[in-house]
């Protein structure tokens, strides 16, 4: 049996965790999930990113979903937001691309030109 | 959409898009059919017209695809899709049925994966999944309960995906093979 203090601390940690999931994170990976994205394999891509984040043991990276980006032929598409940097959009992201983008861009801050769609404003 | 699991995820994406934070899913199936009922507390759909691919509330593309595609998938097997607003204040309910033994039936796919994907894609949305068998409804997944368990330290985000898979694989083992 845990004492009340421990339980409170645990609860606070989880609250923070949940808050972080929706709020601040150093890196946010957003996968487009409109019908086109889903049909083109966006769920597999999202799962791959979740696994990559888990394996990297990094706690400052979060994976979420958004609606469709509107460029159906280029789905699956993702946005990557790194703190203090311009957001970057990638297109035609498959599992292999996801791994490359994770290793290069997310972990090493290098843009992967091959799948680049656009760079946004700060 | 390659399978039913994709359709299900896509249709719940509509609920999230409509601002819902509670989605109820009820599934009944046998070897020969798959029936699914979904209701949400979003802003509510307006009219039947949405089964027409030219109706969409999106601003990035003029044509909505999700519902017409699902309708097609269901009707191709002799099944149906119905959708309606719950009342003036909002909410949407839809149900579809498809015949799995029909030659044009799509595979069911990995339903377990659909539910874990939803949990990760929209962690603030509460999904409750019921399975109906022999006229009895059983609650098999409750995202609110899962979040509470995370909060109490009984589970964490790393093993939650595994947990959802175990629970739903057990439940859908008869049809996941298809
Ligand atoms: N659960 C819901 N609640 C409220 N409105 C809905 C719901 N589901 C669908 N709609 C309405 O019906 C329209 C058509 O939905 P549909 O899934 O066919 O296309 P879409 O979501 O607009 O685009 P796509 O699915 O191609 O990404 C939506 O734009 C929305 O206005
Ligand atoms: Mg849709």
Short description:
The complex is a heterodimer of chains A (122) and B (178). By secondary structure, chain A is an alpha+beta fold.
Key terms for this structure?
heterodimer; A: 122 residues; alpha+beta; Glutaredoxin; five-stranded mixed β-sheet; globular; B: 178 residues; Heat Shock Protein 90; six-stranded mixed β-sheet; 6 strands; binds magnesium ion
In order across it, which strands form the biggest sheet of chain A? 2-1-3-4-5
- How many structural units, i.e. domains of chain B? 1
- What is the ordering of alpha helices and beta strands of chain A? HEHHEEEHE
Q: Greatest interface and its residue counts?
A: A-B, 29 and 30 residues
The average pLDDT of chain A is: 84
The SS-based structural class of chain A is alpha+beta
The CATH topology label of chain B is Heat Shock Protein 90
Number of strands of chain B: 6
Rounded mean pLDDT of chain B is: 88
Poorly predicted runs of chain A are none
Overview of this structure, please?
The complex is a heterodimer of chains A (122) and B (178). Chain A has 4 helices and 5 strands, in the order H-E-H-H-E-E-E-H-E. With 122 residues, chain A is of the alpha+beta class. Chain A has a single domain (24-119), classed as Glutaredoxin (3-Layer(aba) Sandwich). In chain A, strand 3 and strand 4 (88-90) form a beta hairpin. In chain B, helix 1 (4-17) runs antiparallel to helix 2 (66-75), helix 1 (4-17) runs parallel beside helix 3 (111-121) and helix 3 (111-121) runs antiparallel to helix 5 (157-176). Chain B has one domain (4-174): Heat Shock Protein 90, CATH 3.30.565. In chain B, strands 3-4-2-1-5-6 form a 6-stranded mixed β-sheet. Classes of the chains: A alpha+beta (122), B alpha+beta (178). The interface between A and B is medium-sized, with 29 and 30 residues. Magnesium ion is lined by residues 10, 13-14, 64, 66 of chain B.
């Amino acid at each position: 049996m845990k004492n009340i203090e421990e339980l409170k601390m645990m609860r606070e940690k989880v609250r923070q965790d949940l808050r972080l999931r929706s709020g601040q994170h150093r890196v946010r990976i957003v996968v487009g999930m409109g019908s086109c994205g889903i049909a083109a394999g966006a769920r597999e891509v999202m799962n791959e990113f979740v696994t990559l984040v888990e394996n990297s043991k990094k706690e400052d990276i979060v994976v979420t979903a958004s609606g469709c980006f509107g460029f159906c032929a280029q789905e699956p598409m993702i946005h990557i937001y790194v703190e203090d940097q311009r957001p970057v959009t990638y297109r035609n992201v498959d599992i292999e691309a996801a791994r490359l983008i994770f290793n290069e861009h997310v972990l090493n801050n290098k843009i992967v030109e091959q799948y680049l769609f656009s760079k946004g404003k700060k | 959409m390659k399978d039913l699991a994709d359709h299900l995820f896509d249709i719940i994406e509509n609920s999230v898009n409509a601002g819902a934070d509670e989605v109820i899913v009820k599934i009944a199936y046998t070897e020969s059919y798959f029936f699914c009922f979904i209701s949400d507390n979003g802003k509510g759909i307006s009219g039947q017209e949405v089964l027409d691919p030219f109706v969409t509330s999106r601003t990035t593309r003029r044509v909505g695809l999700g519902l017409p595609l699902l309708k097609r998938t269901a009707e191709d097997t002799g099944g149906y899709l119905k959708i309606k607003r719950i009342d003036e204040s909002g909410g949407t309910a839809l149900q579809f049925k498809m015949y799995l033994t029909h030659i044009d039936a799509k595979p069911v796919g990995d339903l377990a994966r659909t539910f874990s994907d939803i949990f990760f894609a929209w962690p603030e949305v509460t999904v409750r999944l019921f399975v109906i068998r022999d006229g009895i409804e059983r609650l098999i997944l409750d995202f609110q309960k899962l979040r509470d368990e995370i909060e109490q330290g009984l589970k964490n985000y790393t093993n939650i995906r595994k947990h959802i898979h175990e629970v739903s694989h057990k439940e859908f083992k008869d049809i996941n093979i298809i």
